[in-house]
Amino acid sequence: MENKEKKYNAVITGLGMFKPEKILDNHQLEQMVDTNDEWIVSRTGIKERRIYDQGPTSEMAIKAAEDLIATTNLDPKEIDLIIVPTVTPDMLFPSTAAIVQEAIGAVNAWGFDLNAACSSFLFALQTARSMIEVGQYKKIVIIGADKMSSITDYTDRNTCILFGDLAAAVLLEPTTDKSLGIQDSLLHIDGSGKDSLYMLGGGSLNPPTHETVDKKMHYIYQDGKTVFKFAVKGMADISVEIMEKNGLKSEDIAYLVPHQANKRIMDATAQRMKLEPEKVMLNIHKYGNTTSATIPSCLTEYYRAGKVKKGDKLILSAFGAGFTWGAIYLTWGMD
Ligand code: UT7
């Protein structure tokens, strides 16, 4: 439900990104499992992905936050809140946000990690937005960071071709200009999808033992066909719903910014929204599915390439394990 009494709109005022140097391309994967470049590109749109083999997720998150700080001249002491959407935290606790907070000197911030699988970034954006709109906080940093290689089984061709490592950050601030920033959101969770995409081991259900390791329970499992079916419908329906709710026609929209899980899912969503392919932000070919980093990395790359301008209307849209899914409609506020 929209709050008509809100004081401010929440607007993205800064961006940051870190991409690991090491590339794992489809031809290298051909040497590791029974697959081929043609299959991967035609079924997913992925050509290569990045692998961070230097350290944990927090290191990538810190580097993305440092990029944001450097490019916005943000004083870390002014940060009120750090949210790290991630499914690959360094540890179950302390949170990755705590490690980032210390490293960047955000001495006045509080923070937490947020896990809604591939919808984590959208859920974090909505959470931060609600705190900004009521005037509670002025500077919230959200860093979508995932080291998917740490939970990927590189002998399983069903999953190892899909995922990669990446981190990207946004700064969210209040504005009194209600024509800018986040305008609306629609988010959902439905646990009936829990058996289609999961990692069984490591939590309280299956604490780590030799057996959980032997049974490969610390890796992602995905019933790709089922998830694909629900993702196509879920992402397209929610994206069209938020357009209709806000009286938006396809010509009003500058970009769809979809979670990058599969190009075919993104194409189907764009088709339902009647958007031309140029209006779909895309970086899956370079990075694969990087879970929490897909949407903020698209925003960072397209903005830095001069392709997004102030006033542009964007629909951010995602679908992930849980199931979780949703869409956020915003008007771009950076010059
Ligand atoms: O981000 C969170 C949400 N996740 C998603 O949205 C992912 C949704 N699912 C997908 O993107 C797709 O289902 C996949 C890309 C994972 C798989 O594509 P698909 O078109 O659904 O393929 P499939 O699983 O139906 O497999 C088709 C065939 C099978 O062979 P048979 O049974 O037809 O003989 C697979 O064994 O392709 C085979 N196959 C492969 N072949 C070459 C599966 N993986 C591979 C591979 N290389 N890597």
Please give the structural blueprint.
Elements: E1 9-18, E2 23-25, H1 26-32, H2 37-44, E3 48-50, H3 57-72, E4 81-85, H4 96-104, E5 110-114, H5 120-133, E6 140-147, H6 157-160, E7 165-175, E8 181-189, E9 197-198, H7 210-214, E10 221-222, H8 224-245, E11 255-258, H9 263-272, H10 284-287, H11 294-304, E12 313-320, E13 324-331
Parallel strand pairs: 4-5, 4-6, 11-12
Antiparallel strand pairs: 1-7, 2-3, 6-7, 8-13, 9-10, 12-13
Helix pairs in contact: 3-4, 8-9
What does this structure look like?
- This protein is α/β, with parallel strands linked by helices.
- The chain has helices spanning 26-32, 37-44, 57-72, 96-104, 120-133, 157-160, 210-214, 224-245, 263-272, 284-287, 294-304; strands spanning 9-18, 23-25, 48-50, 81-85, 110-114, 140-147, 165-175, 181-189, 197-198, 221-222, 255-258, 313-320, 324-331.
- The strands form four sheets. The protein has a five-stranded mixed sheet, sandwiched between helices. A four-stranded mixed sheet has the order 8-13-12-11.
- α4 (96-104) links the parallel β4 and β5.
- The radius of gyration is 19 Å and the shape is globular.
- The mean pLDDT is 97.
Characteristic terms for this protein:
335 residues; alpha/beta; Peroxisomal Thiolase, Chain A, domain 1; four-stranded mixed beta sheet; 33% helix; globular
Number of distinct helices: 11
Rg, please? 19 Å
Query: How far is it from the N-terminal to the C-terminal residue, by CA?
Result: 30 Å
Average pLDDT value?
Answer: 97
Shape: globular
In short:
The protein contains eleven helices and 13 strands. With 335 residues, it is an alpha/beta fold. A hairpin with a 3-residue loop joins strand 12 and strand 13.
